Structure formats: structure tokens, C-alpha cells
Amino acid sequence: MNITFRNETFRDDYTFRNSPGAIRRFPFPFHEDKYMYSVNMEPHVPAGPDGHAYNKPIDVDEHYLAEMDDRAKVLKEDPLRYQALPHMMAAQWDTLELLMEAQAAGYPGHFTLEKNGDQWRWINRPMGIDQAFTFGDASTLPMEPLEFITRQAQGDFVIVDQRDGQLWCDAGMVTTQADWSLDFDIGMNFHEWHGPVPLAHEIGVFDRALKFLLNLQQGKPVRRLNWTMTINPRLDTSPENYHKWGPDRATVTPENVGDKVHLRCELQSLWRLPRSNAILFVIRCYLIKMEELVTVPKWARRFHRVLRGLPPELVDYKGLTRYRPTTVEWLSKFDDGLPTSPGIYPE
Amino acid sequence: MTINTEMKVRVTEIRQVADKVKRFRFERAGGGPMPVFSGGAHVIVSMRDGKALRRNPYSLMSSPEDTKGYEISVLRVENSRGGSAFLHEKLKEGDELVLSQPVNLFPFDQRGKKHIMMAGGIGITPFIAMMEQMERGGKAFELYYAVRTRSHGAYWKELQQRYGAHRVKIYCDAEKLFIPVGKILANQPLGTHLYVCGPAGMINGVLGKASELGWPRQNLHAEEFLAPPPGKAFQVRLAKSNRAIDVAPHQSILEALEANGVDAPYLCRGGACGQCETGVVSCDGGLEHNDHFLEPDEKASGKKIMICVSRITGNAVTLDL
Amino acid sequence: MLVAGIKSRPVYGGLNIDRHAMRHLFALEGEGALAVLDQVKAVGPDFLKHADILYAASGSKDQEHDRKLAALGADTFWLAPTIPVLLNRLNVMLGQAHMGAHIHLAGTEGFIGQAQQVAMNHGVDPASLHTEHRGSTARRVQCVHCKGITDNVTTSPYACSACGLSLLVRDHYSRRLGAFQGVCIDAEEPGSAPKPEELFP
User: Fold this and answer.
1) Residue C92: beta bridge partners?
2) For residue A304, is it within any domain?
3) Looking at residue B242, which CATH number applies to its domain?
4) Mind spelling out the 3-state secondary structure of chain A?
5) Where is the domain boundary, B179, B199, B223?
6) Is the pLDDT of residue B67 over 90?
7) What class is the C23-133 domain?
8) Structural domain that includes position A186
9) Cβ contacts (< 8 Å) between B188 and chain C: which residues?
10) Which of A171, B260, B298, C98 lies at a 20 to 30 A Cα distance from C80?
11) Strand B21-28 relative to strand A129-134: parallel, antiparallel, unpaired?
12) pLDDT at residue A274, rounded to an integer
């Protein structure tokens, strides 16, 4: 079935909304009424109720065109959001193949991939792209393979090279990030790149995650959910533009919480790439307004409890300090104290 | 793209390619493509040999872009624990086997300005796939290949034809020709990486020479598949499931567990990847660590064991399983 | 508040003379000269026969370290007028160097970072470099907003030399840029920046 794409914005007038169906499919990141870092990886196999964001390995939804348009705008202002170190070319082609195959298989009405040996043809109907090229020959595409395909796929993409028992962040397309800079972090190893994250190092989360990922197998992708919060449905909450979106954090009032405050969920999937032996991190961002979130009573109760009990270091790191009390207060109206069922899906 | 793990394959070709070396080609039993892989990767081949289930790692040597089938080459080992004897003497074209997804514990460093490979005997196999990939990627490389006699050395003629004698150099023990490691390593440009695959003695010799010549650890890479060394029989006790399982002299702990229906995680079955690391609750003798994975202090602690290759010297060990 | 306990801060292992090295290439800045002088005291002068020393005095001009270095009798010694000129020569020399040559970098953090970048462009793994931090703990900082780099930052916050924003110096270091990260400190409430505090004298 074809998706009806919304015409909306993630900046200026912020017309982004979720349809009722998009609310139900939202990957809500809390499986219980409290939150702490954990490695929380599970096999990335189709799961969830019909239509859920977990149904397809690479998810395309009603925000596709608007997100691709926002990405193009970000790149126009700041081309450094896409970078790949020279040794990552094999991994770029791996990623192009993975995303083209997954989008074509998952959404045949929107995307088609024809392969004849290394002569490929890619059709992206929503974006009006029809590109014939030679797989492996970068001169047959209008831009590097990773940039070409990630301008047509939702989510941020980071490719990490595996060397010497470490993972190295050596390529990426990052325009919908939760406050980290690819331009600054490119070339860092797994621990360095996650350096600013509080608490998690001390409880060994990154050591365990690294050990796990070093043995990630081809054909067995894994996923995990991460989250933060954003004021206004802004995809580009980059450190580069922090001085532009930072002031929004001071604009939350009891009257506008429902519309302004968003839960921002990252569905991260990790894939061992075949030719390069690198790992692709897909960091797909989903936004939901508080007033949309509370239409699912279980989520309203749970998110209220999670936010209320969040450790102070995480409140600080996630930048919630200014508006958390107002938001907790607003959410409390939707929490009747009843128990919530386990798991992330709506009841 | 499918989320898949093990692959059922049919043996489509078996060829004797040199003294004691056979090449096997596998294609999907139900048709369809195999995954692309990266040069240096191996698969675990699961073989049903009568009652025994054998699982051995073999480097992939076919072209990484050839998705029609995978090829491995196997040396017939004297005193084989069963794997190479089974493949050489029992396996026939048309038979079916199960392969794991490819796993690469011996990838080349994509940053390298130049790549030097040194192979001993059957250690040539990962380099065949690597060179294919390097050639396609336009990387500078050289292969130095040591064989016992020209008839024991597999593929050297084909490799010289394909890449030229300036890039593929053969050294034959029987002709008293040995790889002049010191001379080769003395004048390589900065950013060169060295890869060695072959018997333990050769690996240690080459890497030792490279270190003596000031090469940093980051530029040295080696792969040696350890067959699980035999030892004396002992018993494994599983603390969590409260079971006792006997390990025979020619069996690894992992194999004994699998033979008794206990599934434990593994990737390389050769003591390199760390996937089968298991906690030791108690042991009535010493641990015989045969792996390349644990750090010396971890080995000394007596708290961890790699069950794919390591054994004990006592009579019983209790594992955290 | 300075965010503390962050992991990307480089660890400078110190220069150490590996007797297996075929050659030693030293790129030194300012007080980094003392790192080599100390090595000579510790292991003797033999390694100097196979050593090339590049030195930029920077802020240590008055100390006359260059005369002590020149007097060591290394195979070659060259005094560079500025850091960029030194890095340029380092780049050419690395293009002609062979595996087995060991690269030693000593001086301020900003200098080590820049020299490391030159070496990485020649395919050298940064972990195989010998590095020793000497001299000022002042930081080279990149403004994450305008990408402008300010050298010798001793306070946090500081005013970006390119765009003027008041920046918090995070303890997050990029070896590729050879710089720490500066992030606008009063973005959420413009004008509320605290007074600069001398943190990296």
C-alpha cells in the first residue's frame, strides 16, 4: 500500500504533525515506568503490531518527503554535515546497496531497483529520481554513493570502520541529530565519540556495547531505542545551530507544552556491511508532540513517570532542565496512577 | 535483503588443486544468491559425518562479488580430527552442507597505502579473496607465497598469471628459496600494512622480524586458525543448568556441549573472536588456554575460558552456563 | 561549569625511544624540546645518529632550547620559523619515510594535534605515534557554530576569535581537527554568559 506523504515543515512555521496512524506506529522508547542507560540491543527483525515502525528493516513513513526536503536545506547551508573519509568508499557502496534494496523491497510502489550485473537503475517515484549507474563506479553518480542514497532515506547514517578491536566513526550523513557534530566527531573511536555521555561509561555500557558490536554478524542486524526531547518539531538540533534553537528551550509555558514539547525517539539499527566489514548505524529520528503522545493513555502515564524520576545527570545531559518541571506537571493530568502493561506498544 | 543466518548449500564442484589440497564450491541448495563478503572472511562449515556433527572454519577464497557460490580450499591434514578427512574422503558433489554467514576476523586495513601479504601453504586462501578485492579497489599490493614444493602449492600459477610475477612471488622450500622477510620489510613506504597467514612458526617469525625492524603493532595483521588441540578427557559441569558433560580427548568443550544439545555462542571456533568466552566457576586443575583472545592477566585469573579451543589439566571444571 | 570526566581527551604516552626503530623523526614545538633532551639523559645519545629533529620555538624563543637541540648532534636538525612551515616540511619528509621510522611529537596540545593530522594523511595510525605534552595547557578550540579555530585558549567561556560568540570549552577533543570543542554557553538565555574563568593556564 502506498503512503500518503505529508506536506509539512521542521523549521520556521513548524507545520509537522503526526496522523493518528503515525501516532500508533511511533516507536515509544520505554518498556517500563523508569529509564536508565542499558545496552538494550535486540535482533532487528520485523516486529510490532501492523503498521508499527518495527515492521520493515528500513522504515519509510508519511514524513519522508518533508524530511528529505529538510535534509537538502541543511546541506545547502552546511555541506559539512555529510562527510566520508577516503578509505570508506567500499562501505559507501555497501550502504547504497542496503538502503536501495530495503526501500525497494519494503515499498515497491515507491521505489524500484533494477540490477543487471553492475548496471543498476534506481527509481524513486516520490522524489522523481530515475538514475542509471554502474555499481562500484562513483563517476556514474552525481555525488558520492553515500550522499546520493542518504539524501533519499530517512534518518541519520554513520558508518564505522572496524580496526584493532575498535570501531571508528569514519563516514556519515548527519542532519537530524540530537546535539552531536559529525564534523567534529568524524575519525573518533567508539568511546571517544560517546565521550560526552554521562554515567554510561562508568556502568560499562560502552564497553559491553563495543564488545557486542565487534562481533556483529552479517545478516543479523540489531536495534535499540534511544531518546531525548526537543522543543518545536525541529529535526536539525545540531550543535552547529544550537545558538539558534537553544533559546526555544526557554519558551515552554503551561499553555503551550502540548504543542511545543516533543519526545524525540531514535530507532538505531546496526548492520554489518558485507564488502567493507564496516558497520552501518542507522539513527532514525521520530518526533511526537506531547498532545499526540497522551492520546495513548499507557504512554501518557509511563512518560510522566519516566520524566519525573529521571536522574539529574541525564536531565542535564539531555538539556531538559528548563522545561522538565512544566512538562511533568502538564503530563501529571494524564496519569491516574493505574499500572501500565509491560512493553513499548500501545495497549 | 533477508535477515538470515545459516545457509543450506549443495556441493557443486570438488577439484584436486595440489597435493593434498582440494577445492570445494558451494551453491545455495534452494537457488538464490549468497551474500557478498569481504576478503579475509571465513565461514563455519557444518558437516554431518555419521553421528558426529563437525563444525570447522574455512577462509573463503572465491571472488567476494561472486554471489553464485562460495569456494574454500582444504588441506588434508594427517591426524585430522575428522573435518579435513571427511571433506577429502567422504564428501561428494551433490551432497548438502550448512554454512554460517561470512565472518571476517582478518580484514585488510582500508587506510593502507600499500598491502604486503605473506602466505605459507594453505594460508594462501584468504589472500586470494583479498587480492581480488584490492585489485577491484585499485589498492597497491604484493604477495609473497611460500610453498613446500611447487606441486604442493595451490594456485600460484594462476595468481602469477592474473597479477603478474612482479606482484606475486613464489618461494619453494624444496628449492631452498625462502621469503626474504627482512629485505622486503626494510624499505616499504609509510602506511604499508603487513598480513601473514600460515603455520604458527611462520607467523611468529614474520611478525617478530617486523617488530625488530620497528614496524608498529597497528600495521601487523595475522590469522591462524587453531584446530582445537586434543588433550585428556575431563568433565564439564554446568552451574546454571546443573548438568555434567564429558569431554573426550579429541573434542573441544564447545563440541561436547553441542553433542549434548547445549547451544553456546561462537563465531570463529578458532580462539580468536571472543564470542564463546565463558565464566569459570571452579576448576580442580589448571586451565589450558589455547586462544589468542584473552589478555594474559585474564588467562592468569582463571575466571574465563574460551571453550572453542581451551581445555583443563584436571578432571572437572564448572562453567557459568 | 566545565563538563568533566570526558573520554576523548587524548592520552599522551610520552616519547620513548624504541631501539628497534630504523629512524626517529622528531617534530617539536616550544617546551617540547625538553622532551628530547630528557630522553637523551634517560637512554643516552645513540639514537641521535638516526634522528631528524624539526623544531619551532613558538613561545619558548627566549629559552634558547634550539641551541641545546642543535648541540645534540642529531643526523639533521632544522629550526623552523613557524609551526605551519614546520608542518609543511614534516609532510614532505613523511612522504619519503619508510616503515620502521618512528614519529615523535612533543609540545602543546594544539601542535601535537596538527602534526598528528599530517601523519594520519600518510596512513599512519595515530596510536603508533609517540606523543608528549609539554608547555602551556592552553587549548586550541574549534567553535562548533562557525568552525573558526582559536589558539591558546586559557579560559572558559572565551569569545570565539571568528564569530564572537561566548563559548564553553568542552572536554571533547577531535584528533582530526587537533582541537577541543567550543559551544555557545548562553544560547538558551542570550546575554547570561558567566565571567571567563582561567582554567587552562
Assistant:
1) none
2) yes
3) 3.10.20.30
4) CCCCCCCCCCCCCCCCCCCHHHHHCCCCCCCCCCCCCCCCCEECCCCCCCCCCCCCCCCCCCCHHHHHHHHHHHHHHCHHHEEECHHHHHHHHHHHHHHHHHHHHHCCCCEEEEEECCEEEEEECCCCEEEEEECCCHHHCCCCHHHHHHCCCCCEEEEEEEECCEEEEEEEECCCCECCCHHHHCCCEHHHHCCCCCCCCCCCHHHHHHHHHHCCCCCCCEEEEEEEEEECCCCCECCCCHHHHHHHHHHCCCCCHHHHEEEEEEEEEEEECCCCCCEEEEEEEEEEEHHHHCCCHHHHHHHHHHHHCCCHHHHHHCCCCCCHHHHHHHHHCCCCCCCCCCCCCCC
5) B223
6) yes
7) alpha beta
8) 20-332
9) 98-99
10) C98
11) unpaired
12) 96
What would you measure as the largest C-alpha separation in chain B, in angstroms? 61
What's the whole-model pTM score?
A: 0.92
- C152/C81: higher pLDDT: C81
Cα–Cα distance for residue pair A251/A247, rounded to 1 Å: 7
Active site annotation includes A224: yes
Peptide bond into C157 cis (omega under 30): yes
A274 close contact with B: CB closer than 8 A: yes
B41 touches chain A (CB under 8 A): yes
Nearest-5° angle of CA A186, CA A189, CA A194? Answer: 85
Chains contacting chain B through 3 or more C-beta pairs under 8 A: A, C
Instruction: Establish, for the pair of chains A and B, how many residue pairs have beta carbons separated by less than 8 Å.
Output: 68
Nearest beta carbon to residue C128 from set B192, B212, B218: B218
Q: Do A218 and B35 touch (CB under 8 A)?
A: yes
CA-based nearest residue in chain B for residue C91: B190
Which domain CATH number covers B167?
A: 3.40.50.80
AA letter at C53: I
Instruction: Tell me what pLDDT residue C6 has.
Output: 60
Closest-approach residue (CA) in chain C for B109: C123
Domain residues of chain C, as ranges?
A: 23-133, 139-198
Chains near A (3 or more Cβ pairs under 8 Å): B, C
- Predicted local confidence at residue B3, as pLDDT: 44
Question: Could you tell me the three cell numbers for B305?
Answer: 575460558
Give percent of chain A above pLDDT 90.
Answer: 85
Catalytic residue among A224, A234, A264, A308: A224
- Residue B274, chain A, CB below 8 Å: the answer is yes
Indicate the DSSP class of residue B225.
Answer: P
Give the neighbor-by-neighbor strand order of the sheet with A222-231: A42-43, A222-231, A261-272, A279-289, A156-163, A166-173, A82-84
Q: How much is the average pLDDT of A196-218?
A: 81
